[in-house]
Amino acid sequence: MVQIIFDSKTGNVQRFVNKTDFQLIRKVDEIEDLDTPFVLVTYTTNFGQVPASTQAFLEKNAHLLQGVAASGNKIWGENFAKSADTISKQYQVPVLLKFELSGTAKDVELFTQEVEKVVTKPSAKMDSVK
């Protein structure tokens, strides 16, 4: 079973993950020790940056990261949900989805499909966790 870890500032990301059917959903600031793979859903702050709270969490737990999704606002153009791109590049994981604000029903459906692909796909990263 995959767990979804999220970081939310305004509530948009939390509203998004709450629309999913995943059973194990936890917030970054509620986690002490993590020992199982996870998918991260976060937001983008300032002009396309990864939130400090997300970055701090990843510094301890990135070895278990399987994929990332991010919320943003399309008015920011090329910086829309850019934190997903930054995390993907930094930790060599796929961007599963970029969604606006708290996402649509279609976004939730696409995210669920992408998470299922990541979870069922054999991964070198998963092998290194064992």
TrEMBL record:
Return one GO MF term: FMN binding
> Sorted alphabetically, which SUPFAM superfamilies does this protein's record hold?
Flavoproteins (SSF52218)
Q: Which Pfam families match?
A: Flavodoxin_NdrI (PF07972)
Entries under InterPro entries matching the protein: Flavoprotein-like_sf (IPR029039), RNR_Ib_NrdI_bac (IPR020852), RNR_NrdI (IPR004465)
Instruction: State the similarity comment.
Output: Belongs to the NrdI family.
State the NCBIfam families in the record. Answer: nrdI (TIGR00333)
Q: What is the role of the protein in this entry?
A: Probably involved in ribonucleotide reductase function.
Q: What is this protein called?
A: Protein NrdI
Gene of origin?
nrdI
